[in-house]
Amino acid sequence: MRKLKIQMQLSIDGFVAGPNGEMDWMTWNWGDDIKKYVIDLTGSIDCILLGGHMPAGFIPYWESVAADPANPEYPFGKIMCDTPKVVFTKTMEKSLWDNTVLAKGDIAKEVNQIKVQTGKDIIAYGGANFASNLIKYNLIDEYHLFINPTAIGNGMTIFKEIEQNLNLKLVKATPFDCGIVVLRYQPAIN
After folding, report:
1. 100 and which of 36, 95, 124, 189 could share a cystine (Cβ 3.0–4.6 Å)?
2. 14-23 pLDDT tens trace
C-alpha cells in the first residue's frame, strides 16, 4: 500500500497559520540544504492531495514557475505541475486545472482508495481543516513538520480534530541553515 506523507509548516508553538490565516511568520530564506530535502521528499511521490482552498494559490503559482526556465524554482515547479493532483472539495463542480481531479466524497474512503492504487507514495498539502481531517481519520503514514523559528501565540492548528492522544514516533529531526527544523514522524504502533 502506498504511504500518505504530509508536509506542513508550523510555528514553534504549533500553529499552521494565524487566527485569520496569516502566514507572514513563515521562514522562506531557504538554502540549498532544505530545498534538497523537499526535492528528495517529492521524489518519492507520484500524487499530490490538496485541500479545497489550497489549489487557487498553489497551482497557478507553480504553473507560473514551471513556465519560466530561468526561475530558480523551475525544477520544483515542473514536479508540482507534472504530478497528478487530487483536490478534496465539497463546493467545486469541476477542476479548473490541468492534471487535477476532484474528490467530493468521504475523505477517508477517497484517500484509502488512492492509497491502494498502484504507484509511488502520495503527499498532502493543505490548510488546517484538510490536514485536521487527514489526522482525525488516521490517514497519514508520515509527517514532515517544518518547524519555523517563530512563535505566533494564537492561530490555526492541524490537531484540532483528534479525539484521543495521537502518539507519534520520531524518525528523524533535521535542522537547516535557515532556522527551520524538520521533524519526521510516523504513527506509533502500540
Report:
1. 95
2. 999 999 999 9
